[in-house]
Amino acid sequence: MLPIQTVKSPNNAEIICVYKSGHTSLKNCLPFNEIIFRTRLNVMNEKGRTVAFLPVRNPIERFVSGIYTVSKNKKYFNLGVNDWLDMLENNTHKNLHFMDVTTVLRNACFCFDDIYLYKFPDHFEQMLRDGGYEGEVPHENASTKKIVLTDSQTERVAKYYTKDIALFESIKAPGQQFDFMPI
Amino acid sequence: MATPFATLGFGNGFPFCLVRFNIDPNRTIQNEPSLAQTMESYWNLDEITWGGAVLNPANEPKDLICNPNNNLGFDQYVITQQPTEDEYYVVNASRPRIVVDGGSEYYYHGLSAFYFYRKETSTTGQYISQITFVSYSSTQGASDYSNDTGCQPVYYGSPPSPYIIGYTRTIDNYTFTNVDINGIPFVKTVRTLFDGYNYKTPTTPNPSCPNPAYLPAVGTTPNITLHTY
């Protein structure tokens, strides 16, 4: 299981860092927390209820943003959208930019008692305010160049992120508590 | 060779204001970079690599004047990702910032790298979880320390007649050392965690306290290449 990285909000809620979902903005306005490792220690040592906020972005938009970001790295210069989709579908390459948020949520369920969901970017400011942050809300790392997917690529992305889409569409209001989902 | 340039910045040597954060709890200032080293790590980063993770932003330093986030990002190289075992490297470039400790301020460059290795082993009467985490980051460290729960009995039943069905022990070790990579100062943190549970089964009727054992720490060091003019 991947470790979970969070930033600490002023009222002690932990905001889970999800790449391409306000990660850079969060790091630029709130302090890091130590990375959380899941062992039985996390589950068994009760230290009061722990609260986490999870930003969830439209998976299609998140994928496009991820492609834009990785394309800035020379390591991936020769890879196009279809190459990334092939690697994701065949599970031949792991990259946190494209990690499905339902996996993050599944891992978070082992580390936190209460988890609240926010759409990114629509609920981003509300998430920070609910965490007690009163400063200016940053908007960092927003890509200016937009990659347009073909219909078939969009279909493949939607299929790959089926569960993420269900999770995203299940959020009806900012701060909706996560109870159960067959993920 | 990068193209030389000149820029005025925001009066601090960067194309943005540095965000200030309080130092993390239980940490002290350690091997902090100078302003010149912080600027070097931001403006002149060409490539940071470790164990197959490679971040090589495709721009020249002068491009950061108008696109200050162009060098930011990370890369991950996964060796194993299984339900009972993960091993991977990450390299990362974030914005520099300022760490506030009491009334004093210290620079914090945004370069970091970490190695993560986790393994869970489950055999009859025994469960063991081990993690080794090696990170290179800026400015914050501590004296070496260890959190050890000691041997903890696990009971079944309620007083007055509970009986012991096993023992757990968790040990979390931290060491902090100063490392310079290509002139950029880092704090190397090595965290080794052992979490064990020996429990009663028909074939292990008398469980003992788990003996701590740790996964090895990676022996290599991240590599940083800087632009020259």
Describe the structure in your own words.
The complex is a heterodimer of chains A (183) and B (229). By secondary structure, chain A is of the alpha/beta class. Helix content of chain A is 36%, strand content 12%. Chain A has a five-stranded mixed beta sheet with strand order 1-2-3-4-5, sandwiched between helices. In chain A, strand 1 and strand 2 (14-16) form a beta hairpin. In chain B, strands 5, 6, 9, 10, 12, 13, 14 and 15 form an eight-stranded antiparallel beta sheet that branches. Chain B has a three-stranded mixed beta sheet with strand order 1-7-8, with no helix packed on it. Chain B has one helix spanning 35-43; strands at residues 20-22, 28-29, 45-50, 53-55, 73-82, 85-93, 97-101, 104-108, 111-123, 126-137, 140-141, 145-148, 152-156, 163-181, 184-199, 223-226. Chain B has one domain (20-219). In chain B, a hairpin with a 2-residue loop joins strand 14 (163-181) and strand 15.
Layout: helices, strands, pairs:
The complex is a heterodimer of chains A (183) and B (229).
Chain A: E1 6-8, E2 14-16, H1 23-27, H2 40-44, E3 51-57, H3 59-70, H4 81-90, H5 101-108, E4 114-120, H6 124-130, H7 151-160, H8 162-170, E5 176-177
Parallel strand pairs in A: 2-3, 3-4
Antiparallel strand pairs in A: 1-2, 4-5
Chain B: E1 20-22, E2 28-29, H1 35-43, E3 45-50, E4 53-55, E5 73-82, E6 85-93, E7 97-101, E8 104-108, E9 111-123, E10 126-137, E11 140-141, E12 145-148, E13 152-156, E14 163-181, E15 184-199, E16 223-226
Parallel strand pairs in B: 1-7
Antiparallel strand pairs in B: 2-11, 3-4, 3-16, 5-6, 6-9, 7-8, 9-10, 10-15, 12-14, 13-14, 14-15
Key terms:
heterodimer; A: 183 residues; alpha/beta; 5-stranded mixed beta sheet; B: 229 residues; mainly beta; 3-stranded mixed beta sheet
